[in-house]
Amino acid sequence: MTRARRTATAMALAALATCCTGGAATQPTFTGDVAPLLFKNCAPCHHPGGPGPFALISYEDARKHARQIAKVTGRRYMPPWPPDAGHGRFVGERHLTDAEIETLRAWAAAGAPEGDPLRMPAAPMYSAGWQLGTPDLVLREAEPFVVPAEGGDVFWNLVLPSTVTGTRYVRAMEILPGNARLVHHANVLLDTSGAGRALDAQSPGPGFPGMDLTLASNRFEPDSHFLFWKPGTPALVERPDMAWRLEPGTDLILNMHLQPSGRSEPIQPAIGLYFSERPATRVPMLLQLEHDGALDIPPGDAQFEVTDALVLPVPVEVLGVYPHAHYLGKIVEGTAKLPDGSVQWLIRISDWDMKWQGVYQLADPLSLPKGTVLSMRWIFDNSSSNVRNPHTPPQRVRGGNRAIDEMAHLWVQVLPARPEDRLTLQEALMRARLVKYPGDFVALANLGSVLESQGRLDEAIARLQQAVNTRPDSAVVRNTLATSLRAANRPADALKEFERALQIDPAYADAEYNLGTTLLALNRPAEALPFLRHVTAAHPDDGAALSDLGAAYAMLKRFDQAATALEASLRINPGNAQAHYNLGLIAASRREMPRAVREFEQAARIDPTNREIATALAEARAALKR
Amino acid sequence: MEAGRRLLRPHAIAAALIAVLAASLVVRADPQGRELTLESIDGTPVRPFAASARAWVFVFTRTDCPVAARYAPELQRLEQRAVSAHVAFHLVFVDPAETAGTVRAYLHDYGYADRALLDRSHQLVHLAGARATPEAAVFIPSNAGPVLVYTGRIDDRYVDIGRMRPAPTRHDLDEVLTAVARGQRPEVASSPAVGCLIADVTR
Fold first, then answer.
1. Is A152 in the B-facing interface, judged by CB distances under 8 Å?
2. Which regions of A499-611 does DSSP assign to beta strands (E)?
3. A571 — alpha (psi -120 to 50), left (phi > 0) or beta?
4. Worst-scoring range by mean pLDDT, A218-222, A296-300, A590-594?
5. Which of A613, A618, B45, B164 has the smallest CB count inside 10 Å?
6. What residues in B contact A77, CB-CB < 8 Å?
7. How far is CA A97 from CA A41, A73, A84, A88, A581, in A?
8. Which residues of B touch A327 (CB under 8 A)?
């Protein structure tokens, strides 16, 4: 009896609650509705020690920013996810739905009620250290860089020598910014040219200023990976078949966009690298759509358009995109028009904000057939209504590296079906560049180099000759031209160009080596010798040069020196069939037939189809029997 | 013609000024303002209008507001200007949950002098009509009590949260200081402040 009455009372109370609170029954609460949204979308940055300016973990955290949260989510400023919904699907998307935004608005409007504490979901945990465990290599500047207390955006570069002694394959990279709240985003560039070090030496303290760097080595080389980091993103883990190469002598340049916080603060970022034993079996490629040459934006123009397009000469899979412009960028669109006429969005950002730029990896790789047209379209706003305009009043703006200049870029990371397709793509890129910039040195030099690699020597020589005419002081292009001339069986012309390259840059080891080996091929070992000796003295770990030095000595019948050089070459590269073959010939000429047979056998094992080696081995064995 | 234009011009300017004042300059004299009591970071009661000054500047702030934090160097310059013009200058922390220790640490970290007011019950916030941090309120003395002559932004660098100019094009509080230092009322009585909403930390 008692039990029945209690139940009836409880039911009556429940009915009363439903009848009298009306719409309030659906009123969102922190524990029931808001916390799950914040934990998923906000807490990755807004946690203690995180890059967000305040934490959004506890009820008290959220209550103190409730209306602010409603406001910034209402205008979709937060969570920061610039790509327009429905224009490509990306890894790590942070779009709130309209219903979720309404939940946050209604919660704030209701006075940010906490709700039942027992319904509070488990708060996410974040650790301050390396997310993937201790890295195999940690790179850190010895001295911190001090970010000034105030002023505009700071673009700063730290040069971190990689210290690896052999080729390593990087399967993941993590950046600990040192002070996450100051670093808006960062790019890691690989510099094999020493250009970054030179700039660092010219600037006091650690690092040097600069927004967009132009280094002699390619921006994303060697393996066309986007090494882009922004706060709240996990470590950059590569696909198992796509580790990127880190060669000895490479500097990692951490190109950072920093925001002053109101007080001067030191930062000492660290890069953690995780190595793989396995080299990449798939190598992506970065296709750059751009037309900086078309950037000449009159003051007051709020709709200045820049476009670019590339017809794919081979099928590819698109893996990711990276749009890039500065403060005048307003809208960017990337599309792929397939041969059947259908159009796929790669990305669209209708409210470009340079501060929230990022690399966007496609949620599912997009397969595009040969003949697809990749297109980029940028709209720039150089009017005074663009509050980010660096000039007041607006001024004419052209393309360039400085923050007050502009850029119109869309990088598209693709995976070609076959390794050789990279050359075909590079050729298409450079031909497209020549259409935009007729007579462009970079396009001519790169196109010539591609054609040379493909064995299309006549056009390679013509293009490289054009490049040399454009910039006669380029030792690198003269060396490539000479290599093409040699391949085209024009050794005399090749020798002249190698010599010119060395006159321009006497320390240019590649040209010196090529000159030596060309002389050797012309049966002029005495003339080749000084060049090959010089290269091997400067680069004692250059196994190929040691092997050729040994060959030169052997041709001059200086067998002891030849054997020493060849043996040194084999210690570096035991798989050099030519060095074994030459050692065999030296042994045979000294009548050391057992040694000759051993060396020829080694050579034949490495290069079993080589007739010259096979013949020598047969003769040596016959001689041994006699 | 020329003479006539010269005669007309002052009238036209005056008419325009009156129109501006009528539209935007809403001044409020508060006879009780003199009695308003806040708290210092030492925990002692402070009557901010009790000390005589040419004007009083209050800048509302909180320790967890990134927009307010970024204004620290500019506010320190403005404080120096104010003090040299015999204008009182106070930072006013509006979050009742903030302890004196938190506020002290913040002042130290951002290079401020070790003094500030705490407006836990938002008396001054209401008097000034402030809505965000950082936001300034400027009062001048009158026989009827302190008169509010400006409430609004420090400058126009922020247009909205996350939307800012590379540098301000208008230094509103600086202009107000110039006016009150000359014994004049500022031309503009209010401007929209961008920052963290004070309503979020109302008890």
1. yes
2. none
3. alpha
4. A218-222
5. B45
6. 160-163
7. 11, 10, 13, 16, 70
8. 166
Measure A184 CA to nearest chain B CA, in Å.
12
At A437, the amino acid letter reads Y
Task: Using the Cα atoms of residue A333, residue A338, residue A340 and residue A344 in order, give the sign of their dihedral.
Answer: negative
Cβ–Cβ of A64/B72 closer than 8 Å?
A: no
Band the pLDDT of B199: cuts 50, 70, 90. very high
In this structure, are residues A131 and A173 in contact, taking their beta carbons and an 8 Å threshold?
A: no
Q: In this predicted structure, what is the pLDDT of residue A215?
A: 61
Q: Would you report the helix, strand and coil content of chain B in percent, each value rounded to 5?
A: 35, 20, 40
* Contacts with A435 (C-beta within 8 Å, 6 or more apart), sequence order: none
Question: At CA B136, angle to CA B132 and CA B139, rounded to 5?
Answer: 135
User: Does A260 contact chain B (CB < 8 Å)?
Assistant: yes
**Phi/psi of residue A344, nearest 5 degrees:** -110, 135
The residues, ordered by sequence, that sit 6+ positions from A249 with a Cβ below 8 Å of its Cβ are A162, A192
Cross-strand partners of A272 = A138, A174
Q: Are A519 and A535 in contact (CB under 8 A)?
A: no
DSSP A90: B
Judge contact between B201 and A64, C-beta under 8 A. yes
Could you count the other beta carbons within 10 Å of the beta carbon of residue B114? 10
Interface test with B, best of A263, A328, A330, A355 (most B CBs within 10 A): A263
CB contact under 8 A, B97 and A60: yes
Q: In this predicted structure, what is the pLDDT of residue A184?
A: 87
What is each CA distance from A200 to A251, A265, A267, A391, in whole angstroms? 12, 20, 17, 29
Q: Can you tell me the distance from the alpha carbon of A516 to that of A400, in angstroms, rounded to the nearest whole number?
A: 41
Residue B39: phi and psi, rounded to 5, are -130, 140
Instruction: Determine the average pLDDT of the residues in A558-568.
Output: 95
- Do the Cβ atoms of B193 and B131 come closer than 8 Å? yes
d(C-alpha A465, C-alpha A461), whole Å: 6
Q: How many CB pairs under 8 A join A and B?
A: 77
**Angular region, B106: left φ>0, alpha ψ -120 to 50, beta rest:** alpha
Tens of pLDDT, residues A360-410: 999 999 999 999 999 999 999 999 999 999 999 999 999 998 889 999 999
User: Given A67, A263, A388, which is nearest B110 (Cβ)?
Assistant: A263
B171/chain A closest Cα distance in angstroms? 15
Distance CA B17, CA A350 (A): 41
Beta carbons of A149 and B111 less than 8 Å apart: yes
pLDDT value of residue A224: 84
Q: Which domains are delineated in chain A?
A: 24-119 (no CATH), 137-276 (2.60.120), 285-435 (2.60.120.230), 441-625 (1.25.40.10)
Contact A188, A271 (CB under 8 A): yes
What is d(CA A316, CA A339) in angstroms, rounded to the nearest whole number? 14
- What integer pLDDT is reported at residue A3 of this predicted model? 39
Give which of B77, B200, B202 to mutate to test A binding, by max A Cβ within 10 Å: B200
A242 contact partners, CB below 8 Å, separation of at least 6: A223, A225, A280, A282, A283, A284
E strand or H helix at A565 = helix A559-572
* Structural domains in chain B, sorted by start: 26-201 (3.40.30.10)
Contacts of B110 in chain A (CB under 8 A): 262-263
The answer to whether A353 faces chain B, any CB pair under 8 Å, is yes
Q: From chain B, pick out residues whose CB is under 8 angstroms from the CB of A78.
A: 162
